[in-house]
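Researcher: Structure for this, please.
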Amino acid sequence: MAEASDDGPALGADPTDENELGTPGPPLSRKAPFVWGLLAGLGLLTAFALGTALVNIAGVIVQIVVAMFIAAGLDPLVRWLERRGMRRAYAVIVVIVGVLLVLALFLFAFVPVISDQVQRISDNAPDWLDSLTRQKWAQDLNDQYHVVDKVKAFVTGGDFLSSVFGGVLGIGLKVLGAILNAFVITVLTLYFLAGYQQIKTALYRLAPASRRERVTLLGDRVFEGIGGYVAGAFVVALCAGISSLIFLFAAGLSQYAVALAFVVMITDVIPMIGATIGAVIVSAIGFATSPGIGIACVIFYLLYQQLENYVIYPRVMSKSVDVPGAVTVIAALIGASLLGVVGALLAIPAAAAILMLMREVFIRAQDER
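Model: Predicted structure, token format:
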């Protein structure tokens, strides 16, 4: 055995056996200010890191949400094919192929026509401004504020597109970014549509087993409402675009008909103000071409918006969303302030889902107390 000396324990001895290093003190309390401050600081750093990460990937999250909404809008078509006896896998393939064919048709058939007509509108804008300056009320307004002169100088100065998009490089980057975003959303939509049922099942399994059946029923109702709204909004916008196309050919604006009808269809998707924006754009070009055509445009869109608001929209949306008018306005304003046009588009089905969950969960629980 090793021998101990007066100066300390012998080499190789276990000091803990004889407490040569002293008795261990009590563990540090979790309520101690140092521990509490350290944990709070680590929590704040973690929250800041997560918030920064969310801000950095906000664009990706928006793409995922938009793709999921579009997939939910295409799912009713898949289920319609299933009800006709087609297996879901084949129905999904048919819908995906159909979407790709429509996109290809749009790119190769309509995009060149729209681009050509947009260029015509841009080339004719100075002449329209000249005809506008000959109007008495426009001359009075221009004499006081020089509005028309400033607009004309801006359009005819050669820097119109550069000023809007931030230069030639900015135009290229924005176009490239838009194409990339559209491609990513399209790919995500196809993936989500192919695995739509599996995604819903995985989400439902996050709920406790005792409540999973009710969560599944509520979730299916929410997804059906979202899908019905997205599909219905597309149908309503398509009706607006086709009606505008027919009218513009009949009214004498055939050289701009496809581009303007496309603008009306896109803006009609925007809640509350979209249809009015499209009507104002078309009517302004109509007045610039001829006062008679402008008056015809105003009359047509006044009548069509009544038809859309009281006939087409209620019939298409009757089984998809149930949102009061005030809630629709508030939801659209909040969505637009958060995510712009995309937020306004997604706000109404999201508000419908929240209202349904409140009625089925919160209000029912309150009534049973």
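Researcher: Any notable elements?
Model: The radius of gyration is 31 Å. The chain has 13 helices and no strands.
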